[in-house]
Specification:
By secondary structure, this protein is mainly beta. It has 2 helices and 13 strands; from the N terminus they run H-H-E-E-E-E-E-E-E-E-E-E-E-E-E. It is globular and about 50 Å long. Keywords: Signal.
Amino acid sequence: MPSPSLPLLCFSVLLLSLPPLAQAQEGDPVLPYRPSVASPAQLPVPGQLEFEAGGLLSKTDDTRRASLPYTFKLAFSPEWGVLLEGEGFVRARDDTGRRETGVGDTTVVLKRAFLFDSATALGLELGWKLPTAKDSIGSGKSDVSLNGIFSRDLGAVHMDANLNATRLGAADPHTGRVQTGWATSFSTPVSERWGATAEVSGTRLRGAPATAQLLLAATYSPTPRLAIDIGMARGLTAASPDWSLFSGVVVPLGKLW
């Protein structure tokens, strides 16, 4: 099976490369999209390039998959921004024991936020997945997706609800071409620096079994400009991954304007 040592090693190197704590406290705070599947409607501070990276290890029956997901986020204004996301490295083993390594697919997302007040926002994300992974790791085709977001502060609890549809470039002969997805996450601070996140999410595709999972995570922010997360997800249906373990970090790379 893929060893978790590779994601853990790369994540450790990333942590060691972070700026000193005093330096990290200077400037605008980050807006983490990790560790949940659901994205918030809001965008980062305009002009601040943010970077999210981590390690992910998952098991589904006899298959194993380890990857290094990443996301670059940049807002042009409080209402408009772009995301570039993908997997910098993937190591997978199928149920026959065959192993594959390489980079994953890459997705470009255009995002529009509709800010009603400090507690409520809507969002739209239009994404285009580029088949940068080889066929044994990715689908080999481009996908187009549209994601609707509702974000709301409920006292100390922040909620993000996502509903999306993806037009698949590659599909099995007896399944549909449009996959729908949903996710609802709740996050809350538990102390000055620690927080907790819980989420349920899933997908549905005509002619294929539905998936669903429960995600639980802890977050740690020693400064407003650094967020670290660790958690796990458990599949709730037979078609879902049995379990996933993950950890990651969110940091600003620089102020572009």
